[in-house]
Structures are given as C-alpha cells and as structure tokens.
Design a protein that fits this description.
The chain has a single domain (3-205), classed as Rossmann fold, CATH 3.40.50. Strand 8 (142-153) and strand 9 form a beta hairpin. Helix content is 31%, strand content 31%. It is of the alpha/beta class. It has 3 helices and 9 strands; from the N terminus they run H-E-E-E-E-E-H-E-E-E-E-H.
C-alpha cells in the first residue's frame, strides 16, 4: 500500500471512530447532555479545626470553556462536538464538585463559594488548563484533564498570600464508540485530581 493510500485509510478510520463517539451515526440527531459525577467514597477525616475555605469559581482556558465536548485530533487540530456536551459549563461544574469534595473531606469547618459574614482563613483558586478527549491515537483514546490550583492564606488588613500552588494532570483511557465512556473517563480524571488536592491540602494545613 502506498504512503498516500495509507494516510487516506487512517483518515477514514479516524472519521469513523469520531462519528461513533459524537453520535452522528445515530438515527436521532438530538443533543446528549452529561453531568460529571465524581464524589468521595472514603470516610471523612476526624479533625477539629477552624479553617474556613472559600472556593472561588474556577476559570478555564477559552479553548475548553464551551459546554460542547472537545476532541484533540492531532498536535494542533481540535474539534468540538455539536451533539454531545456538558449539561452546565464545565468550569461551574468542576468548581462545584471541588467544593462538595472538600466539604465532605472533614478537613475544614466550612467550605463555600463565599464566606458570607465569616472571614475565610484560606481561599482556593483554580484554573482548568485542559479538558478534552485525546484522539491522536485513535485506537486508544484518552480523557485529559489538567487543573492548576492555588491556596491563599488571608490575613486581616493585608493581602492574601499564596502558600501553595500546584498543577494536577490526569488521563484516563476509554473505549471509543460511546460518549458515556468519555464522561466516565472524565470522572476518573477529576476524582484522581481531587484526591491529590485533598491530600496536599491536608499536608499543608495540618
């Protein structure tokens, strides 16, 4: 087989897989919407503390801010999926999952989007750097998620100081052919990242 024919074969094979994932080969062309479901399964820590954590809404790279799933096809080529998308904007959903996860950890007196009348002892800011299905190897696609987190300590009358900053990256392989597999892989990525964030916060604050 010539090099040109081989390239054509690979391209056609990729398009077939991508259509299967995006749902374009289905009889129905209605959009499918998905929610992330990452949640803690281990017992909460038995700690007594007065830490009040404000988890601000995460920001997200504009390339991945859309509700539509994003696929990486090559080193520089990305494609959005019109037919499969997150139910709510991913930055909002991941922020809320982070708040719930940390609230259930037992490490803090209070975790919320704002401290209200209570001055937070710490603030968490996050930046979602990457969130996509990686199809560069079409025989073994992966979900990719990368989040940079900063922990700030607040002091009365002074600016907040960054006391911890780290980038967390996770990937999870999934079977091509159904977007349910991709969203489940995203869940595994988020669970791994939140587990590591919780562990690092515990080491830093206790």
């Amino acid at each position: 087989m010539s090099k040109k024919m081989m390239q054509l074969f690979i391209k056609v094979s990729f398009i077939t897989v991508l259509l299967a994932v995006s749902g374009c080969n289905q009889k129905s062309y209605e959009k499918q919407q998905y929610l992330l479901d990452a949640h803690r399964t281990s017992a909460a820590a038995d700690t007594k503390n007065t830490n009040i954590i404000e988890v601000r809404r995460f920001i997200i790279d504009p390339a991945f801010s859309s509700k539509q799933f994003t696929y990486r096809l090559s080193e520089y080529e990305y494609k959005s999926d019109f037919y499969n998308e997150f139910f709510t904007p991913p930055a909002i959903m991941i922020t809320e999952k982070t708040r719930n996860w940390l609230s259930e950890s037992g490490l803090f007196q209070r975790v919320s989007e704002s401290a209200g009348f209570m001055t937070p002892s710490h603030i968490i800011e996050g930046n979602i750097i990457a969130l996509y299905g990686d199809f560069r190897d079409i025989s073994s696609p992966k979900a990719i998620m990368e989040i940079r987190v900063c922990l700030l300590e607040t002091k009365s009358g002074t600016k907040s100081n960054i006391i911890f900053s780290k980038t967390y990256k996770s990937s999870a392989a999934f079977e091509p052919g159904d977007s349910d597999y991709l969203i489940a892989a995203f869940d595994r990525c988020l669970s791994e990242i939140l587990t590591n964030i919780e562990k690092d916060l515990k080491n830093k604050l206790f």
